[in-house]
Write a structure and sequence with these properties.
Order of helices and strands: HHHH
Helix content: 40-55%
Structural class: mainly alpha
Length: about 90
């Protein structure tokens, strides 16, 4: 059943910029569907479900194994002005 799900989700067009693609869209969608079927109701819960189920499940869902060590997101750079800080705080709250 997982392979049928993956095959269907792999046909969804990926409109993301190629520079920002780290994982295949079909793998991300497969992860989201499986996690939500198991009760995940937020992005955090979906990510946690993926971490809890490990590399083998990730490979079954279509993620590639990368030998990068610990994966951490790139730091985001924001302006130093007070206005930018207000915009960011408004977005986060």
């Amino acid at each position: 059943m997982i392979m049928e799900l993956r095959e269907a989700l792999d046909t969804v067009p990926d409109h993301r910029n190629s520079q920002g693609r780290r994982h295949p869209l079909g793998a991300i969608l497969s992860l989201a569907v499986c996690a939500m079927l198991c009760g995940a109701r937020s992005l955090y819960a979906i990510a946690q479900w993926g971490r809890d189920h490990g590399v083998t499940t990730g490979q079954l869902l279509g993620f590639r194994v990368l030998n990068l060590g610990v994966c951490s997101p790139r730091p985001r750079r924001f302006g130093d002005t007070e206005t930018d800080g207000v915009k960011i705080n408004g977005f986060l709250l």
